Each structure stands twice: as C-alpha cells, then as structure tokens.
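README: folding subset

This subset contains proteins for which both the sequence and a predicted structure token string are available. Records are stored as plain text. Below is the entry for Beta-mannosidase A (919 residues), shown exactly as it appears on disk.
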Amino acid sequence: MKSSHLLPFLSTTTIALQLLDLGTLKWTLSSPTYTNITVPASVPGQVHLDLYREGVIPDPYFGLGDFELRWVGYGNWTYETGLEGLETSTGLSTWLLFNGLDTFTSIELCDQHVASTNNQFRQYYFDVSSILASCSGTPKLSINFGSAVNITADIANEPGQETWPLDVEGHFEFANRQFMRKEQSDFGWDWGPAFSPAGIWQPAYVVQLPSSGIYIRNTLLDIYRQGQLNNLPPDQSAPWVVNASLDLLGTVPSTAEMKVEILDLSNATVTSGTLQNVSASESTISGSIVVDGALCQLWWPSGLGAQNLYNFKISVVDGNTTLATATKRSGFRTIVLNMTPISEEQLAQGIAPGNNWHFEINGQEFYAKGSNFIPPDAFWPRVTETKIKQLFQSVVDGNQNMLRVWASGAYSPDFIYDIADEMGILLWSEFEFGDALYPVNSEFLDNVREEANYNVRRVNHHPSLALWAGGNELENLELLVAEDEDPGNPKWRNEYEQLFLDVLLPAVYGNTKSISYIPSSTTNGYLELNFSLPIPMVQRYDNKTAGSIYGDTDHYDYDSSVAFNLSSYPVGRFANEFGYHSMPSLQTWQQAVSPEDLHFNSSTIVLRNHHYPAGGTNTSNFRNASLGMGEMTTAAETYYPTPHHANSVANFSAWCHTTQIFQADFYRSQITYYRRGSGFPERQLGSLYWQLEDIWQAPTWAGIEYDGRWKVLHYVAKDIYQPVIIASYWNYTSGDLTAYVTSDLWTPTSGTATLAWYAYNGTLLAPAETVPFVVGALNTTKVFQGNTNSLAYDLKDALLKMNITATGTLPNTKEPKVFTHEYYFHTLSLRNANLQDPGLVLDYDEQTGNFTVEATKGVAAWVWLDLPAGTLGNFNENAFWLLPGDGKREVGVTVKDDGGSGEWVKGVTVGSLWDNTLG
Ligand code: BMA
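--- output ---
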C-alpha cells in the first residue's frame, strides 16, 4: 500500500492490516443504456445524485421530476474506479467489502467477474486475492447496476413464478417490488415518489490482511438480564449478561480469547474481564460475561429518565497479541413488548380479558407516545447527521418517546440509532416487507436470512432498539387472503409463516435475547409462546373470543364526516398507525413547484398527491390523484370556514393551512381517545400516529415537512403528548359530553380542573366551575359530565374552556413539578360558530427573544405563528386558542437555521381561523 488514501487501521488492531476507503477514490459513472452519459461519481452515492450534481438532470424533487426522470430507473449504470496504489504482491489477502449495494449488481475486478448481488440490505464481502495476483497494471473495479424496474419485471415473468390474489400487493408506481430486496418505497408509495435509485449507497472498502490477521466486519452486542427470554419480562434483580459476537474477515486462531472493557463516557473503567463460553467458527467468535447490575446506570427513553451510555471495548486476543478490537457504545436497559395473557390480578383491576400488548422499559409499563418514521429522503446518501439530529430534536421537543421505523424503507444506518440512543427515542424497527405477500423459494428465503442476520446483529447494541417486527400490515393481508383459501391447504398462510415465523423469528431469537419480535406491525398477537417448540410463537390470527382484547390497531377512514365520531375509532391495547393527509405549507411548496403552479388544483400539485396512484408510469394518474385532493377539500369544508382570498397565492396558502388544521384536529381527537384508554378496560398504552416526517414536498400524512418545518399536527401532537392532559369527549348524536384528565406519570397526580363557558366575543357565560381531581399512575379520571342538549346556550356561540393545574413527578425524578394544560370544546364545525375578529396583536421582545400574542377583541381559534420561507425553526407552542381576557401569551422560538440572513424576525406573521372568513 502506497497511496495516502491507504490508512493503517491502527485503532482496531495491532496487526498491520490495511484498509482502503473506496469513497476516497475517483469514480466515474456511465451508462450502457444511455451511452452519451459519463460523469464523475460519488461513493457512497446514487445515480440520480451524481447526475443532478453534474447538471445532467434537474433537481429530481422539482415539479414533475418524479415522472419525467423515470428513464433513469429504466437504465443500467456502471460505477468504475482504478484502485490506485494498491499493493498486489505482499502476500496479504485482499477483500472487497461493501456495506450496501443498491441493488442488482455485477462486480468486475481487473475485467474478471467477482460476483453478482441482489440485496440492498446485505453486507457483501469477497476474497479477491487470486484475481489481484493475476492483475496487471492498476486494478480496475467496475460495478454495474441493472435496472431494478426491468429486472423485477423479468423475475415476475419467469415461468412458474409465484403470483398472488389480485389487490394483495400494494401497487404504487412501478410494479413487482415484492421480487426485490430493495427499499420497497423506491417503486413509489402513497406519500412518496418513484425514482428507483441505484448506486453504492453505503461505504465500501478494500481490506488487506496478513496471514494471521482478522478484520471485524460486524459486531453483535447483546445485553440482557440473566435468564431473559425474548418477548417475556425478565427478572429485574438478575445481573446483566453481556454477550459479544464478532463477524470477521480472515481466520481466527483456535487459541483466541475475547476480552471486554466497559468504560463510562468519561473513559473511566466500570469493569473489565475475559469473556466466558467462547466459541469460534471460521468467521465468527462469540463469548459472554456477567456484570453486576449495581455497577451500571440504566438507560431510559426521553421523559422517563437519563440516557446513560457506556463504551464496550471488545478485543480478540491470541497470547500477547491483540488481533482486533471493536468499540461499541451501548447501554443497560431491558425493553419488552409484553403480550402475555391478562392475569387474574389485571382482571381484578378491571382490565378486559385477552392479552397485554404494551412495552415495558426496565420492568416499567409506560405510555408509548410517538409516530411512524419513513425514509427521510428518496436518496439515502444525502441524509445527513444534521438532518436527523434536527428531526429527532423535534421528536423529543414534541414529547414523543418512540418511533416506529416503518417496514418498507431501509434498515436505518447506525448513525440514526446513535442519535436515538443519545436523545432517548425508542426505535421500533421492522424488516423491510410491507403491504404485499412475498416469494418463498429457497433462494429468496436464504437471501432474506442473510439480510436479517446482518441487520439484527449490526443494530442490536443500540439501547434505542425497541422491537423487531416482520413487516407492515402483513397480518391484515394474510387474514384477507385466508378468507379465500382452502382451510385444508392454507397455501398463503403457510407461505406467510415460512417467511415471518420460520426465517425472521429465528434471525431475532438466534442472535439476541434482549429484543422482542412480532411477525407483523398490526397483529392480534400470539396464541402461545412456548420455548420448547421449534418456532416458539404460535399466532392467534382471528382466533378471538368476543369481549377479549388482544393486539394493536390501525385506523384510516377517509370519510371525514365521521372523523370526530369516537365510536368509529378502534378499541385495542395500542394504536400503531392512524392518520389522514394534509397539504404542506406554501413555504415548502415554493421549494418544489413553479410560481404558476401555486394553486390547489394545479396539475403539478395534484400529481404529487399519490394517495390513489393508478399504478401507472406516466402522468395519466391525474384522476386518481384528484381523489386524494378531494378528501382534504371536503374535510376542510365540513369543519372550518374555508378561505376565499382575492390574492391567489394567499388563498392557496390558507387552503393548505386549513387542511393541516383538520389533520391535527382529527389526530388530537384520536390521541386523546387512545390515551384515555389507559384507564379503561382496554388498558391502552400507546399511540404512534402516521407519519412523523416527509420524504419530499407533497400532500401526505406527515407532521413535519421535508425540510423540517412543523405542520399544525406536530404542534398539536406536542400539546396532547404532554404527561398530564385534559380533553373532552362528545357523543354528538346523544349530546353526552364528558371531560377526563389523563396522566402517563408513574405516580398519582393531583390538581384542579377549571371549566368555563364563553361566548365567541369573549364574555363568560356562567361562573367557572373548579373541580379537584386525583389521577392515578398511567390512568384517567372523569372531571366533567353533561349533555349539550340541555345547555342553556347555543353551541354556535358557546365555547367550553377547560384547563388544569396539577402537581406530580416525572418518572425517575423526585422534585414535584407543576403540569398545566388547556383544551377547548366547541361545536362540531367551526364553520357554524360565531367566530369574530379576534384583533390579534403580535409583538417581539428583543430582550427575551420571545414573541407575544394577544387577542384584543374576540376569541381566536387556531392562532398560528408562521416563520418565513428559508427559516428552519419552531415555536414552543402554536395552533392554540386565545381569549380576550387571557392577556399577552408569550411564545418562545427556536431557530435551527435562518439561512444566514438574520432577518427572519421581521418575516414572522400571526393569524387565526378568522382570517379564512376575510376576502
Ligand atoms: C399505512 C402505512 C403505510 C401508508 C399509510 C398511509 O398503510 O402502513 O403503508 O403509507 O398507511 O396510507
């Protein structure tokens, strides 16, 4: 090795192995399909990103790029480099190591075929020593990526290929995604574009080893309580077991030992020792050690305690020689998805029979509050740490403690888990299967097994890892096809179990004892969990007893007329998905479409709504896309005054905003309903709404827009995910109206609730009522009961303001804390309410850096402070109500990026729903 790119890899070994980061070399990208294109290329990277950077294509996210750039996905592409300076005659063995190739490749070195690959999610490694030995001149490495769109079509058309009943495959833009092990949403999804990118999307290396050298290519670290079994709550008083297992290039000597040193983050040693029960195969070495629980501080999710982390230095030692060392940052915690049968004791507490379905952290039940995380970009190589830190800061600021990492994107890279470890965000993680049935031939299953083992082992050390699920919405599909199948020969069920029980469950249980597994995100859970069976989990499917409650729920209903009908919401133990789409803000649309397209039904905007894709590959989807637009329009018109501003851009902006208000209102109604269920027979212990963030600028279910801007939803979720809340529950058919205080603290909390009726001009209609309350740990309590039919006033001009002040303690703290929350009950449609000019006044206080807002004339509904285009930040609250008597409301602001101008303060505006009534 001569070149300056070739770094002796001293940090992990004392043996002189050489590591060449292929990202440091000069690459070119060309296309056998489009022979006139040759450009410099990046590694890691993807074809679209190289073509965009080099000016061959425009910004893929702009306008109708999603349709116009389909030709890129139909092409084959070749990445090529010369391995300058690579020493080929030293007796070192040489490996190519790829942490991710997207997806169908043929790899050539020195014009000799090395291998073909077909799985985006696997790590690939090839011993190329003999090829190099016969290579003359600079070794040329070339990787050809075949078109995933064409290749999957070919696979689908193979004679005897598996087919499925119509409608089982969620088909978005390109068909046949179930035949590839590639990000499923690369072929389009109902919130995203279909670019079908290709490229060396993860780091790649040349590793050269001396004859006795080893290189650690993947590290499994599993930390669990002694005796712990997957999916079952462990004994919290048992000591910890630290199990380490290293996947290696090179051969480990049979005399090798393993050592571990556990250091706190200030580098003080907590404990160290030699691992026991060491077993080594040619390419893996494993061992474990028992650690006294008193030595280490627990890791907790955000809001529930501290995020204590430690470094684990694991070495492979032979005699006096350290052969290799891996350091992983991890933490001590147990996280279990408890699906055990409801116990006698729980029945006696009023919990409905059936099974549990909730998470326990370090032996404690808690309420999981969060949302669903989709790929943050259609092109992973441009997802930066800064972007994820900003996004996850919004998660924590939004009072969320869990994200479901949805199943049809990509396994998250380690840096995302690292950030989640630091911030305390639990990541319910999924294998990449969704909304389809998949082939089960042995080649496909072997491929999946490799993918699953690699990823389970890679991410297991992250304390933020909360669960593995087989995929998205699969059990519902399975139940659907099961209806049509012969009970004596349930082909689809057998196939489902082959993949999700026989292959994926062992990938989890065989590698880790600390993580629970479910075959499908939404599930009725298991009928039996028996570790003496070859596959310990027997699924319940629809084997339910009336009156019993078993699993988690999802809820989508695009008939907005029933959006606030509480009896339309599912009753389950946990809500893992629910939602409705809304438009992004004007500021976000301005990034993605031309000024002339800034109106609600412009074809560019409509065609970026993929809620009802026709499965076409051109822009003829317009009619279907319009359906998705219509749903948002109808909902806005049903519940709110709708805008009719003369200025068309202002009108467009107000319409976008109104669709966001409906979305937020609907989610709030569901979140309060699910949270109240913590004290109802369903003992409901989680709400994860669909979806946290956007992959691009489009009408979607997201609460955070592509560049990080918060929609109304993220503010409302932040409000309603506070630990102690009050909310009203109205049966608008019977008129029954109640209010409950719900708390997810771990100790009882007491306080007072004040309820007062106001007219929309701000006058108090009757003396306020103050009710003392005590709400139990993870529980709810009723503080008001009435009926709107017996009200002395007309709801058109009456508004019930509810607020609470309570004292309690946050989990794992001792200091009492005061919690406040307010909530407004009003007529179902604010279109009918007697809204009037609130006379809003906005001020900025340079001293405090805060804004103040005051309603000087009437009640202000959905007060909205807005940051100008180009400014990334958020207010500490927004989308609230203000009464004329409230005085000045102080609102803090955090600016994450102002684009450097410093002028953003002047661009901040305030408005409310009243503005929709103005011409
Ligand atoms: C569920 C999710 C996603 C989808 C969303 C909105 O089906 O699991 O697949 O994007 O709803 O339709």
